[in-house]
Write a structure and sequence with these properties.
about 400 residues, mainly beta, Neuraminidase, 11-stranded mixed sheet, globular
Length: about 400
């Protein structure tokens, strides 16, 4: 307690009237451009901020002096057939595939267009359509699951659109088997990006369209809201309270009181879940929420404590852990909400180091099994309608040499 009192009293020692002030500037000339009162008040604000952080349930790494590093990485364009792909998967055996969502019916089956680096032309596989879905079945591919299957969100369209539903499924690329991995339909049609722990006993999924967004737990038995309150300064919101029924979405001013959370990524060692959170969206309305600043949050799934690290990120993409769990890859803009391109970033949680390795318009990314290369889908136009190139970045110099 005495240490806490001493810490709280530190700002007041910066007064020149304080007796025996241990912080008296020995060379005032060095600080002639900084008025004494301004210096004192600035230091007081810093200490008060630290006190608030100490008394709350969260930790925030100081980032006022944080500066990203721009270190363009060497890259090559892989020889994939020209197409509009939706996802990249890099299997543990080294096979890299680019594939499109299954949304086209051919002779009563769903067509999946894909390619590998050795493909001379586009290749196809076919999935059985779900006969329960009266109008149409669509599979939206997610990332690779811990057991090397491909995760997917299945959209089941009905004759009455109010009965449309989403289900979480897996697809075994080797056997062609499709299996539902979460019981029952997902809570809302916004259900999107998902992640699992290494044993697939528990996962997290986001419910977001960019203007609203929260997270919830998933298991093989179903789903449940995440009971977590995120707080920073005078802004906070409950992910559980933001978990509203889809019927409450339309023109609901209540969403203006919540921030946005999306793109969860469970670390390979199961110790933390990274996701994007926007406190700046609180109080914003409509499309202005899309341009809100984001911060990176790390959640301990055991005790539900969290740490807030980098901030000043706009329009961030999905987070993807390196195989050893030392780095996170994502795309987004740093310090600006608009731009014709994004930057591709690598972030080290241990070092609090953010490195830009390239620029472009990105759609998907995948780490190589060895963690020394990063493949991305780079769009040829802003809306990604004219196809993409598969780009492979050599990141060994960064992720291996900086350990």
């Amino acid at each position: 307690m005495l240490d806490m009192v001493r810490f709280i009293m530190l700002p007041f020692l910066f007064s020149s009237d304080a007796p025996n002030n241990p912080f008296t500037v020995s060379d005032p000339g060095k600080y002639s451009k900084l008025p004494h009162k301004t210096m004192k008040y600035s230091l007081t604000i810093i200490y008060c901020t630290l006190i608030v952080i100490m008394l709350t349930g969260c930790t925030m790494i100081p980032v006022d002096n944080f500066a990203p590093i721009r270190k363009p990485a060497q890259f090559v364009r892989l020889d994939f057939p020209d197409h509009v792909y939706d996802n990249l998967i890099w299997f543990p055996d080294g096979g890299l595939i680019a594939l499109s969502n299954a949304d086209k019916m051919v002779s009563g089956k769903l067509e999946v267009i894909y390619a590998t680096e050795s493909s001379i032309a586009l290749e196809k596989v076919f999935l059985e359509a779900d006969t329960y879905c009266q109008a149409k079945t669509i599979y939206y591919w997610g990332g690779e699951l811990p057991d090397s299957r491909i995760g997917s969100v299945k959209l089941c369209l009905m004759n009455d659109y109010k009965q449309d539903a989403k289900y979480l499924s897996s697809y075994d690329w080797r056997s062609g088997k499709v299996e539902q991995i979460v019981a029952g339909p997902l809570p809302n049609k916004l259900a999107g990006w998902f992640t699992w722990n290494s044993t697939m006993t528990r996962g997290v999924q986001d419910d977001s369209d960019g203007m609203v967004g929260t997270l919830y737990w998933i298991t093989s038995q179903g789903y449940e809201p995440m009971d977590l309150v995120l707080e920073q300064g005078n802004k906070k919101w409950s992910l559980k309270d933001a978990f509203l029924d889809e019927s409450q979405y339309s023109d609901n001013p209540q969403f203006n009181n919540y921030g946005i959370a999306h793109s969860p990524a469970w670390s390979p060692n199961d110790q933390q879940i990274a996701f994007w959170a926007s406190f700046a969206a609180i109080g914003q309305k409509g499309f202005s929420r899309l341009d809100s600043e984001y911060q990176l949050v790390f959640l301990n799934p055991d005790d539900m404590s969290y740490t807030i690290t980098i901030r000043n990120i706009y329009h961030p993409g999905h987070l993807d852990w390196s195989p050893d769990g030392a780095w996170l890859a994502f795309w987004g803009n740093y310090g600006k909400s608009f731009g014709d391109t994004n930057e591709l970033w690598l972030y080290s949680p241990d070092k609090n180091e953010l490195i830009s390795i390239g620029t472009g318009i990105f759609r998907s990314l995948a780490w190589s099994p060895g963690g020394d290369e990063l493949a991305v889908l780079q769009c040829k136009d802003l809306l990604c309608e004219e196809g993409q190139e598969v780009i492979q970045f050599d990141v060994a110099d960064i992720v291996l040499h900086e350990k």
